[in-house]
Amino acid sequence: NQRRNEMQWVSKLKQALEENRFMLYFQPMKGLQPSCVGDHGEFLVRLYENGGLVPPGAFIPAAERYNLMPLIDRWVINNAFEYLAETGLGKKDEGTFFINLSGTSLSDKSFFNDIRALVKKYDIKPSRICLEITETAAIDNLTDAVEFITEIRDEGFKFALDDFGVGMSSFSYLKTIPVDYLKIDGSFCLLYTSPSPRD
Questions:
Q1: Which residue has the higher pLDDT, 177 or 96?
Q2: Residues in CB range of 51: below 8 A, 6 or more apart
Q3: Pure H helices in the chain
């Protein structure tokens, strides 16, 4: 049943890409400290299907299994960069805007060149963009991840590791993966609480 459901999603996703039925949401992020200046936020993708919005958890597993995520990631990046250009946010001196990537996109050798071309097309500052993947995806694609991250950071982009703490050897991998931000998983915070004064 799961395999059949995923195959149905493959057909739906290809059609959605052709018909431009994905939707990009922008979620603002507010700093807790007064010293945090500039606009910050994260781009989230949704699918418009049968008159309603489908959350990514419903279709991304199928997209990753059947190698459609590089196409979806390209769609997200193109539309996110276009939004940042039109609003002027991508040309400001402050602000960080996060875009999630699939681990499979890192193995696509032309993917970074496409990002570089889109930055030039929309004339936005790479330093305003922070690309991110999950810690699990980084570990599963470690060689490609390190190469990709090194290249984008050399060009001025930032990089974030999402869901930190879910992987088996989180701290040891940090020595290998050059990141600017860590997004710590909620379960990790629950496991490592501050000791009481009596301890």
A1: 96
A2: none
A3: 2-19, 56-65, 69-87, 111-122, 135-140, 142-154, 170-174, 186-191
Amino acid letter, residue 97: F
Render pLDDT for 82-117 as a digit per residue (tens, 0 to 9).
999 999 999 999 889 999 998 888 888 899 999 999
The model's pLDDT over 124-149, given as tens digits with 9 standing for 90+, comes to 999 999 999 887 778 887 888 888 88
For residues 25 and 43, what is the distance between their CA atoms, to the nearest angstrom?
6
* Six token digits for residue 46: 């949704």
Residues pairing with 76 in the sheet = none
Closest CA to 164 of 141, 136, 130, 192: 136
The DSSP symbol for 199 reads -
Contact status, residue 73 vs residue 17, Cβ threshold 8 Å? no
Q: What angle do CA 87, 84, 29 make, to 5 degrees?
A: 95
Task: Kindly report whether the global pTM for this prediction surpasses the value 0.90.
Answer: no
**Which H/E stretch holds residue 100?**
strand 96-100
Give the number of C-alpha atoms closer than 13 A to the C-alpha of residue 149, restricted to the C-beta side.
26
